[in-house]
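for the recovery benchmark. tokens below, seq after
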């Protein structure tokens, strides 16, 4: 296995900032679609998810600033706005979360191969977070698929579900503060 260059973790982290901001924008597009479809609980869930992804990007920015690494705030990739049924945007969100998990794993491996134990430690929180994110999206997709064309069953499920997440005191600090 070839040794990666000393900048590979930093480069990957800069790219991950773009991925997190793109995920945030994609979740806004999904939330707006649910909002326009008069599915307020699904909309609320994805508006909140958008803020969480934005916070993840800002945690990475803060980390780069704290390590005295160059920070460049990127633009975002295109997002999808057109959906037909609620399972479509949720399936997209699940695929996105699985991709982010792969990206976080690559970041962890890069830090490890470079002997950067501080960055390994930093990435552990994101890996734990991704387990929760994938499980949550997978569950929501399953419930949505079971509901079939009765979209309001998903709304009723979300109304019963406790949506308030406890504050994680182990979360990295976000540049400018978390929203």
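predicted aa per position
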């Amino acid at each position: 296995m070839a040794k990666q260059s000393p900048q590979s973790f930093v480069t990957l982290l800069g790219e991950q900032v773009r991925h997190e901001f793109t995920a945030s924008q994609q979740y806004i597009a999904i939330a707006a679609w649910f909002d326009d479809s008069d599915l307020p609980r699904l909309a609320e869930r994805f508006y909140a998810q958008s803020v969480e992804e934005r916070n993840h990007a800002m945690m990475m920015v803060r980390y780069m600033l704290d390590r005295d690494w160059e920070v460049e705030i990127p633009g975002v990739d295109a997002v999808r706005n057109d959906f037909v049924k609620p399972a479509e945007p949720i399936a997209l969100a699940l695929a996105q979360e699985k991709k982010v998990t792969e990206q976080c794993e690559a970041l962890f491996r890069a830090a490890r191969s470079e002997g950067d134990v501080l960055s390994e430690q930093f990435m552990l929180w994101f890996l734990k977070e991704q387990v929760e994110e994938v499980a949550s999206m997978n569950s929501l997709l399953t419930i949505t698929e079971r509901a079939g064309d009765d979209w309001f069953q998903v709304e009723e499920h979300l109304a019963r579900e406790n949506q308030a997440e406890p504050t994680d005191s182990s979360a990295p600090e976000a540049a400018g503060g978390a929203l």
